[in-house]
Amino acid sequence: MPNVMNISVAHIRRTLQESYSAQEAANLSRIVCCEILGQTAVDYYLGKDIILSPKEMQDLDGILARLHNFEPIQYIQGTARFLERSYHVAPGVLIPRPETEELVETMLKEIASDARVLDIGTGSGCIAVSLSKAFPDAKVTAWDISDEALNIARRNNDMLGGNVRFLRQNVLTYTPGDSECYDVIVSNPPYVTESEKQTMERNVLDWEPFSALFVPDNDPLLFYRRIAELGKTMLAPGGRLYFEINRAYGEATATMLCEQGYTNLQVLKDISGNDRIVIAER
Ligand SMILES: C[S@@+](CC[C@H](N)C(=O)[O-])C[C@H]1O[C@@H](n2cnc3c(N)ncnc32)[C@H](O)[C@@H]1O
After folding, report:
1. pLDDT over 90 for what percent of the chain?
2. Cα gap 110→135, rounded to integer Å
């Protein structure tokens, strides 16, 4: 074979260790070798060399340069896994997180299969599409303020065969119509406070959309309060709110919802033991 080059797994891992911890470099090199370059898992763990054409070598250099620039691997691959499905992602949209999978798993156990559901701040569409796929009789509507996110969410819905209606809406300024009624409103809105920026990794801060992440320090419950207000007219009696929250604000979110007249409050912890999900009934 003319002009082929041998590249070792150890070389890729060593290169990545210039920018990442040993553990992160190992994870990333496995993804690069197995998922991008097509090496089998057995060959990867045996440390076998990968044979690349000059073009493939050039592509690999490009990928490693992007990783050194802390671009998330999901943006490089163009996909992220969420509850066993692959979603298209790009820098205009938040990469779905495992905590959000826990939120959807909770909902899958609790909501009626023909529920009218509104997902506020749908991003990649991961929550809305998962619910629509699990419950074909549900009527799922999803809002986002970002056209870029909505385009990606629509593409995911089409690609995965969901049946979600997507609308561009700003939840902070939205005025509900008389006939609008949902059984469930779910939201994973922006909830990271500005002061938490200092604790965040570069792959999030430099790459993921600020409008998907941050709320002002002086109003961390901004989105939850607004959605709760809307819920008082848009939720059917007995209808439920499902929120993913900043772990620091479980009690504050529950108190705010109580003050707004919601009942049966639950604050659930995620797999790491942090307050992460709040559920309330109208
Ligand atoms: C934390 S992301 C969640 C994305 C997705 N639901 C998920 O769980 O991966 C928050 C989303 O809310 C959207 N958003 C921000 N401000 C909004 C607003 N005022 N009205 C509607 N959506 C908004 C962002 O564009 C972003 O897609």
Report:
1. 86
2. 12
Pick the CATH number of 93-281 from 3.60.21.10, 3.40.50.150, 1.10.150.20, 2.40.30.40: 3.40.50.150
- pLDDT band, residue 1 (cuts 50/70/90): low
Q: What is the ipTM of this complex?
A: 0.99
Q: Which residue from 131, 146, 151, 214 has its CB within 8 A of the most atoms of ligand 1, so it is best to mutate?
A: 146
Q: Are the CB atoms for 117 and 143 separated by under 8 Å?
A: no
Q: Evaluate whether 44 touches 33 at the Cβ level (below 8 Å).
A: yes
- Residue 125 annotated as lining a ligand binding site: yes
